[in-house]
């Protein structure tokens, strides 16, 4: 009887919290309206349309997840008469149109500098077709980043279709390297925390453009060494580092940026 009572109370609490959350979400959505037209009959666009309103409306959610299915194209991935048409091309067009509308919307709201988008999938595709004008499950897949803060260009090289591994494309980057890069560069997570989250050390690559870096405004005193606040704050192109010593002491200053990369000694 005690367990049943606890379960009922838990369900009621979840129900109450859900209603409270829905009120907060609705309030944010009601504060803003979309400023661009989104494509019709596009499931991804419909989801991003809502996300744009929530961001513009001031909802403090750090991460949003939207999804578009249909990429498991074992058959009819391409049209029998045109390899540039078919199910896959249609899906990519939906992604392109949805992301473009979303980007233009958040730009119109003036919040695009606060938004970075990343695509991911739980499976890749094989590089060669099967007998059904499709491809089967594979190991490697591309990941896309979109948005104003995103580093331009391509990381890695075009895959060599003649150099396969068990009939699969060779993976150039572990997907956890991408997650580690995003966690450190966008969410400003400490490398030690990223290691704990991802259960290992993973080298990072540049996915977010370098921006201004805020530093501590407090003076630092340690033994004979006293260091003044770094200026300017935030640091962008240069920094002035001033310190004094009240006794003969050997001083070594190592400078790192917010991503943990060594800048100077």
Structure notes:
The chain has 265 residues and is an alpha+beta fold. The protein contains five helices and nine strands; from the N terminus they run H-H-H-E-E-E-E-H-H-E-E-E-E-E. The strands form four sheets. A three-stranded antiparallel β-sheet has the order 5-6-7, with no helix packed on it. A two-stranded antiparallel ribbon has the order 1-4. A two-stranded antiparallel sheet has the order 2-3. The chain is extended. 11% of the residues are buried. The mean pLDDT is 88.
Topology:
Elements: H1 2-31, H2 43-56, H3 87-108, E1 117-118, E2 124-125, E3 137-138, E4 145-146, H4 175-185, H5 191-198, E5 220-222, E6 225-227, E7 243-245, E8 255-256, E9 262-264
Antiparallel strand pairs: 1-4, 2-3, 5-6, 6-7, 8-9
Helix pairs in contact: 1-2, 2-3, 4-5
Question: How would you concisely characterize the structure shown here?
Answer:
It is built from five helices and nine strands, in the order αααββββααβββββ. By secondary structure, the protein is α+β, with helices and mostly antiparallel strands.
Main features:
alpha+beta; about 10% strand; about 30% helix; two-stranded antiparallel ribbon; about 260 residues
- The count of helical stretches stands at 5
Number of strands: 9
Give the class from helix and strand content and strand pairing.
Answer: alpha+beta
Widest sheet: strand ordering: 5-6-7
